[in-house]
Each structure stands twice: as structure tokens, then as C-alpha cells.
Amino acid sequence: MTAKPTLTQLAQQLGAELRLVPGADADQSVSGLSTLQDAEPDQASFLASANYRRFLSGTRACAVLLSEELAGECPVTALVVDDPYHAFACATAIFDIAPRPAPAFTRRRLCIPMRRLMPLPVSPLVR
After folding, report:
1. Neighbours of 5 (CB within 10 A)
2. Helix 84-94 with 7-14: angle, nearest 10 deg
3. Taking residues 106-117, what's their average pLDDT?
4. Average model confidence (pLDDT) for the chain?
5. 61-83: burial string, b at 16+ Cβ within 10 Å, e else
6. What are the residues whose beta carbons fall under 8 Å from the beta carbon of 55, sequence distance 6 or more?
7. pLDDT for residue 22 is more than 70
8. Residues facing 66 on adjacent strands
9. Measuring CA to CA, which residue among 5, 48, 41 is closest to residue 21?
């Protein structure tokens, strides 16, 4: 994705319930993903393990993907989902900006002719 999604768009794409905190804007752009500890105010994060619950209160993320049971503890906008880990994995695809390799084949021919790669012996019986 090249354009930054808004919180509303991100919630729709992930099937999340968007719970805005007072003063939050549903049209805020989200620039990417990060951990609860390292997230900037324009990034989203997630909480899927109780081991990281202690970082929730201090996060600077604009939104956090989390389960219903932890949504009440979230100090920022919550994106409530059934499976936060799965939702975060799906979110990585939304923010993936890795270049795609060029296709190896075209409709007309191989980009590198096979005859250059593997010369075939000609049988003496072929005329």
C-alpha cells in the first residue's frame, strides 16, 4: 500500500472495532507499525501476550490492536479484534513497501533465453 490508511480504514481492512479515545481523530493517518515501547504517535501497535501488558500504559502509539478483555486498559485508540496477533500479521501486509521483483517471464518469451543457459546436443539422426 502506498497511501497511509486512516484509523477508520485500518479498522475496516482488519475487521476491527474502532474505539476512539476522547480527542482522537478517526481520520488520522497511520504511517506504520511498531512495538508498544517504540511506537511513535503516528504508528499502530498490538498487544497479544500478557507478557507485554506492562508496556500498554506507556505506549505513544496512535492505536493498539488488542482483544476485548484488554480494551478497557488501553490509554489510546483501541482496534478491538478477536486475535490481535493475527490482525497484526495482516496489518504488516497493509504497510509492506518492499519492492516486488520483476517477473521472470513475459508473454512472448523468457527474459533470459533458455538456449543460452542449457545448450542441447543435436542427435546425429536429426536432419
Report:
1. 20
2. 120
3. 49
4. 85
5. bbbbbbbeebbeebebbbbbbee
6. 35, 36, 37, 47
7. yes
8. 80
9. 41
Count of Cβ atoms closer than 10 Å to residue 60 Cβ: 16
Amino acid letter at 4? K
Which cell goes with 40?
Answer: 511513535
CB atoms within 10 A of CB 87: 23
Q: Is the dihedral of CA 24, 30, 36, 40 positive or negative?
A: negative
Give the pLDDT mean for 102-115.
Answer: 54
What are the grid coordinates assigned to 51, written together? 507478557
**What's the pLDDT tens digit per position in 65-83?**
999 999 999 999 999 999 9
* 3-class SS letters over the chain: CCCCCEHHHHHHHHCCEEECCCCCCCCCECCEECCCCCCCCCEEEECCCHHHHHHHHHCCCCEEEECHHHHCCCCCEEEECCCHHHHHHHHHHHCCCCCCCCCCECCCCECCCHHHHCCCCCCCCCC
112: left (phi over 0), alpha (psi -120 to 50) or beta: beta
Tell me what pLDDT residue 32 has. 95
